[in-house]
Amino acid sequence: MEHAGKYKSFPAMDYPQRRWPSQQITKAPVWCSVDLRDGNQALVEPMTVEEKRKLFDLLYDLGFREIEVGFPAASATEREFLRMLAESGVPDDVYIQVLLQCRDEQIDATFDAIRGLPHVIMHIYNPTSVLQREVVFGKSKEEILEIPVRAVRKIRELEASFDGELVLEYSPESFSGTEPEYALEVCNAVLAEWKPCEGRRAIINLPETVELNTPNVYADQVEWVSDRLWFRDYVTVSVHTHNDRGTGIASTELALLAGAERVEGTLFGNGERTGNMDVLTLGYNLYAAGIDPGLKLDNINAIMEAYEELVKMPVSPRHPYAGRFAFTAFSGGHQDAISKGFAAMAKDPSGEWKVPYLLIDPADIGRTYETVVRINAQSGKGGVAYVLKDYYGFHLPKEMHKEFGARVQRMAETLGGELTREDIFGLFRSEYLERKSPLHFLRCSIDDRTDTEDEYTTHAHLAYTYDGREDELDCYGNGPIDAVKKGLQEKLGLNIRILDYSEHALNSGSEAQAAAYVRMQDVTTGRTTYGVGISSNITRASIRAMFCAVNRLSGGV
Ligand code: KIV
Ligand code: ZN
Fold first, then answer.
1. Which residues face 499 on adjacent strands?
2. For the domain bounded by 332-432, which CATH number is listed?
3. CA distances from 266 to 271, 279, 319, 350, 442 (A)
């Protein structure tokens, strides 16, 4: 893709004194949700008043105490919604933010709409960027600066008519495309007109209306302006980033390092074009760094359900923290590492999170470990072994991971999708525990003779069916496995060898069962397989495992 001079990046600042690269975020910002304005205006089907009320209540319950509810001077629904809030009453600790342009008639209409609210943030804005000044307005810097200053003057004239607390917010819209010196001049002119002081707050919001450069450039702009604002003790520096370059979160995080104290954004990053900064992701990022986000984020599924119902847009399965796949691992190596991480955590009293590939514990945000492992054709044996061990108690011997893992992959390829743990266990049952043909074990009695002079110390009497016909067999050997092996060799004309044997308890208590694993080789063909048996009696479990292995060798493994 070539273009001769069509694009160039917005210039970086010559600002070697920058401090933000060596800062750390240590506390949560003041949060402001713009879901009901920036988010709503970006919907094909905007929310109804009832839906807005539900979303407002959700935002309040999540802990937002500054909520921008709309543009009452420009939209009848937003005015109606605002009046409904004022008349039905809002909690006393919430600041209702309203957006308006710097026009007299909008200021009058907005004052009329906010009557009765206890705390209001009046958010005025005008575009200040080079591009907007030149292409959209054709106005000089002086003329653009006069616009918000006049608006603040008018707000001051009317503020006595409002009974509640009034906070002024000013946004030099398209700030990141504005020369920082000029943006500072406009902001300071606004502040000089508002005269913030104790009990008279101002918010200077520095929007990245369209992302124009890498987040470090935005951070430089924010730090440089924030350091030079007048009345700084009474001014909250706020940021409002969009996601055109896909770095809205990064821009906000670097801006927090650069001194921003407040952030505006939306749930799941809804908003104009590619959206606003996602407040939930930022909140979870803080949480993952050990910082209390100051929002109630412990049930991501409930937030997502409410959001999808009201906004009528799906959350991507790959969305950070919230997406269906956020806590899944398809790759075998990852599954194995996750399984080891959980095992290590179970033994570590510190409680520190140490599970590779999972940034946070899914349980902290209302997700379960059930969704942690999903198996598909690319998954390896580690994930399969993890599922059988953690959900069903079977500790497959290491060599068997390969054998059964390959079988699971064949199934995943055939079905062409991901397998659930029930699918995996179903396959394990049919391949091993229920592999009862042609040989089906019925009963056995074992007679161990330690005082004998005979060649063999064990006599096993077996009852079984072969292709449905019942039969009995007396076998002799040293130990039950050896005796049964010899008996089956003789009776069925097999040439088999036992390569490995292991067993473990499956559960505890009076109903305790044991699982036995036998690795058997058909010496004639060289083929090997595992057989698995379970029983409340370990000898029966091992004989079942041998029958299973013989069946698998005779029927194809
Ligand atoms: O993106 C933007 O610049 C805005 C302003 C109104 C703050 O939404
Ligand atoms: Zn915006």
1. none
2. 1.10.287.1400
3. 7, 6, 14, 35, 65
- C-alpha 550/C-alpha 491 separation (Å) is 13
Nearest CA to ligand 1 atom 3: 209
Mutate to test the pocket of ligand 1, among 126, 128, 171 (most ligand atoms within 8 A of CB): 171
Q: Which ligand is nearest to the CA of 170?
A: 1
Atom of ligand 1 nearest to the CA of 242: 1
> What fold, for 439-554?
Double Stranded RNA Binding Domain (3.30.160)
Q: Which atom of ligand 1 is nearest to the CA of 125?
A: 6
Please tell me the distance from the alpha carbon of residue 193 to that of residue 63, in angstroms, as a whole number. Answer: 32
pLDDT for 459: 93
Ligand 1 closest atom vs CA 276:
1
How large a percentage of the chain has pLDDT more than 90?
Answer: 83
Evaluated on CA atoms 285, 288, 291, 297, the torsion sign reads: positive
The domain locations on the chain are 26-311, 332-432, 439-554
Ligand whose nearest atom lies closest to the CA of 123: 1
Report the 3 state secondary structure along 479-533.
CHHHHHHHHHHHHHCCCEEEEEEEEEECCCCCCCCEEEEEEEEECCCCCEEEEEE
The CA distance from 58 to 41, in Å, is 19
The CA 174 to ligand 2 mean position distance, Å, reads 9
| pLDDT, greater one: 452 or 284 | 284
Whose alpha carbon is nearest atom 5 of ligand 1?
173
**Beta carbons of 98 and 71 less than 8 angstroms apart:** yes
Q: Which atom of ligand 1 is nearest to the CA of 205?
A: 7
Cβ pair 278, 249 in contact under 8 A: yes
Distance, in Å, from the CA atom of 46 to the CA atom of 527, rounded to the nearest integer, reads 66
Q: Write out the E strands in 138-289.
A: 165-173, 202-208, 235-241, 262-265
pLDDT given at position 449: 77
Query: Residues 314-370: pLDDT tens digits?
Result: 999 999 999 988 998 877 778 888 888 999 999 999 999 999 999 999 999 999 755
- Which residues does ligand 1 sit against, CB inside 6 Å? 38, 99, 125, 171, 173, 205, 207, 209, 240, 242
Q: Return d(Cα 307, Cα 266) in angstroms, integer.
A: 11
Q: Does domain 26-311 have CATH number 3.20.20.70?
A: yes
DSSP 8-state code for residue 321? T
| Distance in angstroms (rounded) separating the CA atoms of residues 424 and 411 | 9
